[in-house]
Write a structure and sequence with these properties.
β1 and β2 form a beta hairpin. The chain has a three-stranded antiparallel β-sheet with strand order 2-1-3, with no helix packed on it. Helices cover 17% and strands 16% of the residues. The longest helix is centred in the C-terminal third of the chain and has 15 residues. The chain has a domain of 37 residues. It is of the alpha+beta class.
């Protein structure tokens, strides 16, 4: 869901609000309860909910637990390139 920035023109209170695209904009300031809130133009941001984002999407078996592995990714790449270098014929 997108996170929108708002600012009250009466009390200058700024706040963020998580809303669906179909939700109506906020009109009442939560600080002063006046109907003087304007949506600000800001960098887009959103929240990904649920487990599995990026790290486990479309992965199966041992590949699914990359973060939990004892060997880090750069070490794996280095060990693979070393093995392939040793097996190459000149």
């Amino acid at each position: 869901m997108p996170i929108y920035d708002y600012k009250c023109s009466k009390c200058e209170h700024q706040f963020e609000q998580i809303q669906k695209f179909s939700d109506n904009p906020v009109e009442v300031c939560p600080a002063c309860n006046k109907k003087s809130v304007e949506k600000l133009v800001s960098a887009p941001s959103f929240r990904l909910k649920g487990g599995g984002w990026y790290e486990t999407d479309f992965k199966t078996g041992a590949k699914k637990n990359i973060v939990d592995s004892k060997e880090s990714a750069p070490e794996k790449i280095a060990s693979k390139s070393t093995k392939s270098d040793n097996n190459s014929t000149d």
